[in-house]
């Protein structure tokens, strides 16, 4: 595997060159597809190597890898943007609410507990792998790298212990300062969408018990009332599967898989796949950009997340520095 130095066209996805930060590969990491065999023209991976693309003459497949051992292949559909928009689908962490540093801190505290080392700190290189994916994906990365003798079950136990304590502290007004801060310009952007009768769907890979207090706290800060009344649809990764409790699907199908965005659009907002050009997804993470794109929607990238570091900017239909800039394009 080496950095892409030539231009390669992937049907329904785009043409990518040296500035894409993609990796040029001879075969997919699972060995299923190889260049020059069975009609395969090229294989590339995103900068963070989380998603691989396989190019044929008339189609492209995306291989979403998995820390948990359940990868998947998806056909890639072409995207476009047709105005007026019917719906805007928006990520929560880092896009709507600035909270990534808080949740990374929780992952760091969890890993410290696993190691029995209160002074443990994550490295800069860990950041693309501990944000934007599912809790179990984040924890699996840390286990594999820092404490391979520990189990995911042990990690999840510490994670929810820390999460429950910190979320209760926040709801009681005693929490970590600046844990949840609305993104600059988000209120005006949301209200502008409403004024245009554009439906708004909120999408997060976060489990409900961590996502809902964050959403509620953010709306309280903005003075925008009950988020359930404001959003047309909200989807989270559901409820954690734990011994003695019933969980919901969420840990194996989060971003960068397409299902959260696909479900909020089709089931939550009632928009058919054939009308996907009238829908856009807004994200600040590489995993989220891939999720939006694989769901068949144009991905709007927002600065300050890990899109650049994860090497996924090339998958953005457009990339914006702030919501004022994005609003000027979308509306």
UniProtKB/TrEMBL annotation:
Report the domain of life of the source organism: Bacteria
Under the heading SUPFAM superfamilies, the entry gives:
HAD-like (SSF56784)
What InterPro entries does the record tag this protein with? HAD-like_sf, HAD_sf, PGP-like_dom2
Recorded protein name is: HAD family phosphatase
> What species is this protein from?
Intestinicryptomonas porci
């Amino acid at each position: 595997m080496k950095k892409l130095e030539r231009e390669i066209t992937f049907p329904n996805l785009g043409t990518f060159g040296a500035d894409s930060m993609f990796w040029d590969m001879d075969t997919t990491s699972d060995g299923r597809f190889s260049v020059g065999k069975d009609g395969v023209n090229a294989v590339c991976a995103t900068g963070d190597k989380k998603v691989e693309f396989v190019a044929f003459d008339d189609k492209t497949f995306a291989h979403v890898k998995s820390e948990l051992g359940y990868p998947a292949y998806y056909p890639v559909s072409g995207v476009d943007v047709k105005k007026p928009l019917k719906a805007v689908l928006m990520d929560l962490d880092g896009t709507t609410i600035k909270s990534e540093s808080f949740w990374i801190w929780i992952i760091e505290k969890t890993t410290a507990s696993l190691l029995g080392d209160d002074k443990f700190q994550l490295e800069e290189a860990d950041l693309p792998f501990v944000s934007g994916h599912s809790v179990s994906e984040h924890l699996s990365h840390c286990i594999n790298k820092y404490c391979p003798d520990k189990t995911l079950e042990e990690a999840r136990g510490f994670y929810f212990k820390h999460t429950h304590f910190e979320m209760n502290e926040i709801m009681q007004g005693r929490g970590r300062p600046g844990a949840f801060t609305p993104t600059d310009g988000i209120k005006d952007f949301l209200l502008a969408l409403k004024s245009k009768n554009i439906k708004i769907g909120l999408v997060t890979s976060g489990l409900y018990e961590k996502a809902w207090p964050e959403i509620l706290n953010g709306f309280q800060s903005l003075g925008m009332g009950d988020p359930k009344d404001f959003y047309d649809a909200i989807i989270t990764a559901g409820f954690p599967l734990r011994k003695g409790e019933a969980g919901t699907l969420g840990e194996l199908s989060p971003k960068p898989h397409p299902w959260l965005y696909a479900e909020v659009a089709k089931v939550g907002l009632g928009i058919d796949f054939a009308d996907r050009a009238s829908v856009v997804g807004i994200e600040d993470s590489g995993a989220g950009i891939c999720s939006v794109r694989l769901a068949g929607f144009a991905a709007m990238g927002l600065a300050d997340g890990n899109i650049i570091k994860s090497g996924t900017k090339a998958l953005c239909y457009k990339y914006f520095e702030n919501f004022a800039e994005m609003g000027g394009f979308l509306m």
